Amino acid sequence: MRWIVGSWLAVLTLVGAPPPVAAEEQEQLICTAVARVWRGSPEEIADIHTDPVPQSFRAPFESTGCGRFHLVVRSLLDWHFAFGDEQTTSAALAYFSSRWDQEPLAPERYAADLDKAWREAQPRYAEADRLAQANDWQAANELFYKDRKIQALERQIGLGSTRATLMHYYLRGADAYRSPALLAKAEALWPVVEARNAFFDRHAETIATLQRNKPHDPRLELVDAESLLLPYSLANARYRIHDVEFDRDTLRKAVLGDWLAGAEQVDDFVWMEIEEESIDETYLTDLAAAIEREPNFMRLPTKLWREDVLY
Known about the structure:
Blueprint: E1 23-24, E2 30-31, E3 36-37, H1 42-46, H2 55-61, H3 66-70, E4 71-72, H4 75-83, H5 86-100, H6 107-133, H7 137-146, H8 148-177, H9 180-202, H10 204-213, H11 230-242, H12 248-256, H13 264-276, H14 281-293, H15 296-310
Parallel strand pairs: 3-4
Antiparallel strand pairs: 1-2
């Protein structure tokens, strides 16, 4: 099966999903599973045009401790949608960009760096697997979480994943305000995000095997399932803002995956629901069955897409 997108090492918490049960900082600090939605004070709402990113948000966001781990980052964007406008939202997005898009990335070079980091990390992963099979869990965890080669791979993946999060945020803003300027910002990020997605596409079998056989493997802790929606979100924003028609064949495969690629009747129902807002119970039954056949980490994006398109 071909996976269009699916990073297992990056941005679920950044795009607003609940944080995992615990996170261990380099100082061995354990953070409890408490998600904090930032809401802003009445005074900060009144000053939203002059101070679009208040210090009460900056402080936890820029910290390296549990305050950052607990923070639901997307709450700043939601705050601007509720109380600001395109100008204030653009300022907030520029702030995120200054934090997440500091290092220029050429897509071709980034793809090569990802492949190099992947190759160099494999012997270390193999050693960690050997230690785990020998029940030396402490040594295995030391490798998984502290080895230089593994950390280098995670860093390379993270460079693309933060840009995927930023692209997701820009697309939300573009859609909210029908803004060509914000859409252009999102489109500028797409080549790097696409290179990262193609990397995971090449290693999809490894990821799927881990999911089936080692569901608690550290390599699967940070699955970026939500970014499966980015091709749909990008095409949808182009359609809404520039009246660009969907490339349906490409979009269908990007969003649904190959498990429905040959099902013309099901595919017809998909587009009938988009265009005519009609829902066919047979299609929903077929889709639910298809979801159940998917590996676990693919069910979330399929469910999200279904809710986004059908409801």
